[in-house]
């Protein structure tokens, strides 16, 4: 009987027989996705308390039953989060005779011994399968050296970018056949989970409160109560099970980013601009843009990025781009390691008709170059903490006035979404906040340098 149910992918009856659980239609789709590895890459958004963790755990148990000699890794941002799926799996092992018999432990102590073993972070099975639960806290150095045929990432939206670099290496032993399943509450768009969910490369499952009501997992009365009791942002994340488009402190809203990505106009003339954000550490990128500015409209036509490299190499790459496409101005991050790039470009371009600008983002706002209105300059000085904040609010204005066109590119979008601002407690001056993960938003910074101008810009205000 079991053979027929397995061949027919009759997940509903298999789970009912072995775990005494009646799955809803959407729960069946989650279990089958994992148990039968129907897609190599998948993301799961489901309303809070819908039961997605339970379904993933059941899917993992079936995957172990159906396969031999497979390595399974369950990753979460913190140990406590990783233990949620592990505890579900342990419970199913204990309640299922065929799973408990498959576990490679001495069962002489009976069910109590099995319960004690269930808390382990590493399980081995008699069919050669191995299951580990691992925390991806911080940069997740503990992930190194362990490969996985099936990688489950819980609360994926909270896993740092640095940890993701190590996570993806775990799939490298058999990249064509390895399985990556991500599940998360959609906390933010500024994460790899959002990039994957919207990339088109990942199969997606989205289960909101409407589906949960239809399947009997919650009630309309309870949902309306939650709508009243919680903020719109909270309700969006936990019950619509969708990514919040913006927060009160978000600099540039997602809807304006979408408009900029889908502009109907296309510049073919104007001032040619190259902008450069220079990588300052091993996890940063050097980002180079080329494009036009015409009558207050900006468009990025060309994007190049690479990991941290020697400054002279960066300068020469920018110079070659200038020779190939031309430029009236080259705006370069003039802070830290960017100083060397600015110096080298000035030397290379000394006989060329191009301005090389070292953009001092820490400089004072409203005090540079061409503005002749002293009151205007003083207003900018009082409003913004530095030139970086002033220029980022210029960028904000360009997005909100539909005056900028950018490529559809995940890294640009993610960096822009991550930008946050606040007013200082003591001075009330506007400042741009560092990302929570401490990673520099290189693709956003290069865009800020692309629209850089020395004169003040008093119409950019919050």
Question: Can you describe what's shown?
Answer:
With 462 residues, the chain is α/β, with parallel strands linked by helices. It has two domains: 2-238, 3-Layer(aba) Sandwich (Rossmann fold), CATH 3.40.50; 254-450, Nucleotidyltransferase, domain 5. The chain is 40% helix and 18% strand. The protein has 19 helices and 15 strands. Helix 3 (25-35) runs parallel beside helix 4 and helix 14 (311-325) crosses helix 15 (338-348). The chain is elongated.
Task: Give the gist of this structure.
The protein is an alpha/beta fold and 462 residues long. It contains 19 helices and 15 strands.
Secondary structure: elements and pairs:
Elements: H1 2-7, H2 11-19, H3 25-35, E1 41-46, H4 52-66, E2 71-76, H5 79-95, H6 97-102, H7 110-117, E3 122-124, E4 130-135, E5 150-154, H8 161-167, E6 179-183, H9 192-198, E7 203-207, H10 209-214, H11 220-229, H12 232-238, H13 254-261, E8 271-277, E9 285-294, E10 297-307, H14 311-325, E11 329-333, H15 338-348, E12 355-359, H16 374-383, H17 387-400, E13 404-405, H18 410-418, E14 421-423, E15 430-432, H19 442-450
Parallel strand pairs: 1-6, 1-7, 2-4, 2-5, 5-6, 8-11, 10-13, 11-12
Antiparallel strand pairs: 3-4, 8-9, 9-10, 14-15
Helix pairs in contact: 3-4, 4-5, 14-15
Q: Assign the CATH superfamily of the largest domain.
A: P-loop containing nucleotide triphosphate hydrolases
For this structure, the CATH topology of the largest domain is Rossmann fold
Question: Distance between termini?
Answer: 67 Å
Beta-strand proportion: 15-25%
CATH class (first level) name of the largest domain: Alpha Beta
**CATH architecture call of the largest domain:** 3-Layer(aba) Sandwich
Largest sheet: 7 strands, mixed
Helix content: 40-55%
How many helical stretches?
A: 19
What is the number of beta strands?
15
* CA gyration radius, whole angstroms: 27 Å
Averaged pLDDT: 85
Global structural class: alpha/beta
* Shape type: elongated
Low-confidence stretches: 368-372, 455-462
Sheet with the most strands: spatial strand order:
3-4-2-5-6-1-7
- The overall number of domains is 2
